[in-house]
Records
---
Amino acid sequence: MRTWISFLLPEDEYKEKRVLHFLSEGSIILLISLVSLFISSRYLNFFQVDLEFALFISIILFLGYVFLRYILSGMEYTDVATEGTYKQELKKAFRGTCLFVGIFTLVYLVFEGIPSKLNEWIETIGLPLTCGLVWYCFSFISIKKSYKKNKELL
Amino acid sequence: MKNNVKITRVKMGITQQQLSQRIGVTRQTIGLIEKGEYNPSLQLCVAIAKELNKTLDELFWEVE
């Protein structure tokens, strides 16, 4: 079945079905949160939320939910089923993270300029390092979950 | 849904990876089908049956 969302979905049948489930679940949660925000802003005077904040929370809620469900489902790395491929994938994720931190730092330096003080250097390197650490953590969880799931299916 | 996919595949000496590549799905999907944890579409059932030279009945019909 082809829909306009097909370009966002994986080719594999099982993955496609699961991703559609995650998107549907995320949409229902988003709908509930939007209805709650609407009711609270209209009828509850003591609970008023800024429009910008409400929109931001809604976007994060939807994207965060779909992303976390995908990561925790263990279907991102479908071929990681042995100890060897598991370690290889971890190394690849580490190299990818290092590359990301390097490029992020360079782009940051290009736009913000080269820092002159120590605390400015810490700020410049701190942000890419934190993002890289978070990225690696998610990759690690995804690889570990995929490995565990695939090992059971051999 | 239980099925005979794993038994047939092993008898033919094909790995999960090889079967998955031939029918255009991931190895994980083949593993899930073999374990009965995912019910494939009719289209995928037919593709598996063709690749393993079996009928749909032989692979998927009422396995004990």
---
Amino acid sequence: MSLVVQVIVTGLAAGGIYGVFAVGYSLVYRLTGVVYFAFGDLVSFAVFATLLVAAGTAPVSQTSIEPGRFLLALVVGLLLCVGVGAATYILFIEPYLLRGSTLGWVAATLAIAFALHGMVGAVFTRPAYVFPDPLPFDEVGRDGVVTVAGASIQVRSFFVIGFAALLAAAAAWTLERTRHGRALQAIASEPEGARFSGLPVERLVALTFGLVGGLAALAAVVAAPSAPFTVDTGALLGLKGLVAALIVRFGSPWAAFAAGLGVGLAEAAIDNLRIGDLGLGPQYGELLPLAFALGLIAYRSLRSEPVPGRA
Amino acid sequence: MSAAPAVLGQTRSALSAAARELRSSWSRTATLWALLFAAALLAPAVLPESQLVDLAGFVYLALAAVGLGYAVGLAGIPSLGQGAFFAIGAFTEAIARSKGDVPLLPSLLLAVLVTAACGVLTGVATGRLRGAFVAVSTWILSWIVLILLTAFPRISGGAQGLVMPEARVLGQTLTPTAHYVLGLTLLGLAVLAFAVLARRGAGLALAAGRDQVEAALGLGVPVARLRLGALTASATIAGLAGALSVELSQVADASAYGPVLSF
């Protein structure tokens, strides 16, 4: 029982972050038809920029950070993420979209992913980093750990779940209730019509590229102190978010978020649960969701109309 | 006896026709490429063996890259799985040779066949997808192969990798020089086949399918089959390059293969 509770809480905490990524992938795909390969590394870039401003590249302990400086670091990280995201769209994605070149934007977004990854790797050379925690969770319970139904759980896990849900809700609310959101819906369903009716399509889409990056970066920064953060963490978070988005076919924000939670739960369950003697272990936790997504794509592909896809 | 001059005359005219054709289709670029190729073949004479190993490794990577050109350039398939196919070829070879004690040539054949099968599977599974989804699924495939290799030491030999037995064929050891020449020859053949294909029937049909799908289909071009062929050829070349490169380095190291290798 205690293990099940543990799996659920850790699964939801990880899944919440995947969910926020999935929301971003879905929004971007629906607006532009682009699968945003640079997403994970862009967020990783923002997280490490935040770390750089907050603590430099030296080792930090969990609490050796002033709230003021952390806030400044967070703002810098988010602004960078939003700026780079929007610039990426304007400079490297839109030109290829206008030409109808799938190869172009695939290569461009991947090149940006590798460039960002390389930059982060060049500055942060140690295998893993502890991210400072600006919030005093270690004062709750025993050093930040509480016991629920026999399971020891980090208090900040609950905060991460709640915060991720809040971010997803904010995205859904923006899309449904604000002028910006309705404009985006218009662009998604009728790009030409939206252009003719005077919407500044380029600006709105670029802004969205920036905002989904900021949203995911915020989620990643909030989750980062829970576990060591490596140069590859961002790319892996992005990959799992992409899997979640694929499962719901780049659906609505809530569907994408729910799929993210599902992926997180599945991963935690595969990592930890055993049925009798049958247990798969952590190496399958990353593998199986990916294999599932690949199988799902293949299945949908084979069931679709037998017309070869356009490049 | 009287037929001989006639045959000779026919042969001569056929030869001169062939030479004329060769001359007319020969261009300055082709001369340049031929010269470059010849110059590259001279490298073993001037370079020490240690540098030749690195160079041969690059040649094998270039071979895989030319292979990628078959899928991306000719067919316009945004495949991101070339690194995965390279790794599949490399590890099929490594496992067959270090654990199965398979001789060199059969193991190479096995590696190529396994990679070709993976290419066919990938092609069939993604054949009806839009470009964006082909990119996504081959990208995920790359990650799956990476995770398989790094998280499952039983397959990949873990951090030590798989150490290969000495590569011998017909009683001769395969030296770095032999690898270099072999790699360069394969590279030359792959480039040549690419250049020929791009101007001939199948390549033109692929280009038509890439640029104007509806029109090509309307003209009865078997776009789906051609694309499957292009992706399979691309994967097969990568598999061969991977298998040979692992013979060159004599150790298969899991951490050397990842999504990044796809470029």
